[in-house]
Design brief:
There is one protein chain. This protein is of the alpha/beta class. It is built from 17 helices and 17 strands. Helix 10 packs parallel to helix 12. It is globular, with a radius of gyration of 22 Å.
Length: about 450
């Protein structure tokens, strides 16, 4: 008995549980802007998602974070933490000196352990292609999401950020072909298929414990104007093909009985028509200049998509109250284009702890952080970043394979529940600050 207890203690210290894992491998695919209708409505060209929904687990909806943006949501997917805990509050870090093209690429922004940390502690390996906030992460084979501000410099930036050194050269040579700005821009459907080729190669040749893949066609293409745009359906088909190719390599390598496939998203999408620029109202009230580069600002909105977080200069103790007075003085018709998200609600949402309050755009509107007029501008297309209570912001989840209970349905799953699900499948010791395991989605 003493030896058994000592053995269990050693396993726990190594990040493993005493009981065997339900799966030896998890393939985790994030389809950016995945909506449940893609797998519920067969008129969408997503046969792989629809197959997984029929054969395994499906969520009627998955509630995202606030703001419903890619980087905060993807960090929640791998930590089980809300932004207030994991530290990634927005796609772009706020820079008091002005706007920057740099996003929160670096894994050093994450304040809590991620799934790749737990896998490493358990003696396993990880691979990632296109996953946000992973530059510099302790991932064994990593092609992170990074964009240097110009497609012309994209491949060079990827080559420099990929680890170990030489990985991208190998993937180009053996799997994806030579990457260029013309075939790997995330605005192109070809991007997702080359990404799938790299991910499939890594699964076949490296067989990682956890493989993470992030596809982008379904978020980039729908933002193009015109709801009749036929590329929207083709974008869904491209992302579905990524999952299909990964399923194929799992089947071909006879790993299906030991592998779980979890496909989820980060947020939904909403049809929009008009853009708001609330920083113009703050500029007109003297709370900030038209541009922040010269300093001299007291309050400003850090905005993208359907939300805006208020930032107040440390020297402007009354900046939040002044910004609120500006908003309260607007005509009722303008105030109807957004609502104020108070600090108590931000706390309940687990959102940015440093924002005195935020704005949530009304349906049909998006918010831009520029302070140049006019305050209302046309903005046809689709967007995200809105409050997670909007059903259009809900994303989805389907999963099948080892350890997944066939036929299970989750009516409403929180985004914080995905990382605990993956950790439970792999038998990891993993502390998700804001998420729990739903055992009804797993085999006994």
């Amino acid at each position: 008995m003493t030896h058994r207890i000592e053995h269990e203690a050693i396993e726990s210290a190594a990040g493993l549980r005493a009981e065997p894992p339900r799966a030896e491998h998890v393939v985790m695919v994030s389809i950016d802007a995945l909506r449940p209708e893609f797998y519920f409505d067969e008129t969408w060209p997503a046969p792989t998602l629809q197959q997984l929904a029929f054969e395994g687990v499906r969520a009627d909806a998955v509630r995202t974070v606030f703001p419903a943006l890619t980087y905060p949501a993807h960090t929640t997917l791998v930590t089980g933490a809300l932004p207030a805990a994991h530290g990634v509050f927005h796609n772009r870090p706020f820079l008091p000196g002005g706007r920057s093209e740099a996003w929160a690429w670096e894994a050093s922004n994450i304040r809590v352990p991620a799934l790749w940390d737990a896998v490493r502690a358990a003696g396993g390996t990880t691979a990632s292609v296109g996953w946000p906030v992973t530059v510099g992460a302790p991932i064994d084979w990593n092609v992170p999401d990074v964009w240097p501000g110009s497609d012309d410099r994209l491949v060079d930036a990827l080559r420099a950020a990929a680890t170990p050194p030489g990985l991208l050269d190998e993937l180009e040579r053996e799997a994806a072909g030579r990457l260029t700005a013309d075939n790997y821009s995330n605005r192109l459907l070809a991007h997702d298929l080359r990404l799938a080729a790299m991910a499939a190669y890594l699964f076949e040749r490296r067989r990682p414990t956890l493989l993470m893949v992030h596809t982008q066609a379904t978020v980039q293409v729908p933002q193009e104007p015109d709801w009749r745009n036929p590329r929207r359906a083709r974008a869904v088909a491209a992302s579905d093909q990524v999952v299909s190719l990964l399923l194929e390599v799992v089947e071909r390598t006879r790993a299906w009985d030991r592998t779980a496939v979890v496909v989820t998203g980060d947020h939904g999408m909403m049809e929009v028509h008009t853009q708001l620029r609330p920083n113009l109202w703050l500029a007109e009230a003297g709370l900030r200049p038209p541009r922040l580069e010269g300093g001299g600002w007291r309050a400003t909105f850090h905005a993208l998509g359907g939300s805006a977080l208020l930032r107040v200069h440390p020297s402007a103790q009354d900046g939040a109250a002044e910004a609120r007075r500006v908003l309260d003085a607007l005509p009722a018709a303008l105030r109807a284009t957004f609502r104020v998200v108070e600090r108590a609600e931000l706390d309940a949402l687990g959102s940015d702890p440093d924002s005195p309050f935020a704005l949530a755009a009304a349906p049909g509107f998006v918010i831009d952080d520029r302070a140049e007029g006019p305050a209302l501008r046309p903005n046809p297309g689709m967007s995200h970043g809105h409050h997670p209570d909007h059903p259009e912001m809900h994303t989805g989840l389907v999963a099948a394979g080892a350890g997944i209970r066939a036929g299970a349905v989750a009516p409403l799953l929180p985004l914080t529940g995905v990382a605990p699900l993956v950790a439970e499948l792999l038998g990891l010791d993993f502390d998700a600050p804001d998420g729990v395991v739903y055992p009804g989605l797993l085999t006994d």
